[in-house]
Write a structure and sequence with these properties.
By secondary structure, the chain is an all-beta fold. The protein is built from no helices and 11 strands. The chain is about 0% helix and about 50% strand. Strands 2, 4, 5, 6, 9, 10 and 11 form a 7-stranded mixed β-sheet that branches. A 4-stranded antiparallel β-sheet has the order 1-3-8-7, with no helix packed on it.
Length: about 120
């Protein structure tokens, strides 16, 4: 089974930027759909961004214009570039790999272990 490992989280001030990476232990082509979720304390996990077959993308309204999701199949890596960060972006960010749209975020999809992003004012 292909494992997903996130990196790039950390502490940043409001208005700053971070780039998260999610690297697959095998071919990322196993997952036509790669997404990023986040979960803040006391809140449900939410879908932040999705990259579909390396082309189409979709974003939560709260991050549109600030976050960009991309993938590099040669490096088996998907990225989440986060700009103009706000304190409300503070959360644990999870990488998710799915074979179909129905599987996105579901238990049968693949998850990374999560990486903490903290935005301070």
């Amino acid at each position: 089974q292909v494992q997903l490992v996130e990196s790039g989280g950390g502490l940043v001030q409001t208005g700053g930027s971070l780039r998260l990476s999610c690297t697959a232990s095998g071919s990322i082509n196993s997952f036509p759909i790669m997404g990023w979720f986040r979960q803040a304390p006391g809140k449900e996990r939410e879908l932040v961004a999705v990259n579909i077959n390396g082309g189409a993308t979709n974003y939560a309204d709260s991050v549109k214009g600030r976050f960009t999701v991309s993938r590099d199949n040669l490096k088996n890596t998907v990225y989440l570039q986060m700009n103009s960060l706000k304190t409300e972006d503070t959360a644990v960010y999870y990488c998710n790999g799915a074979r179909t749209w129905r599987q996105v975020g579901e238990p049968e999809s693949s998850w990374g272990q999560g990486t903490q992003v903290t935005v301070s004012s």
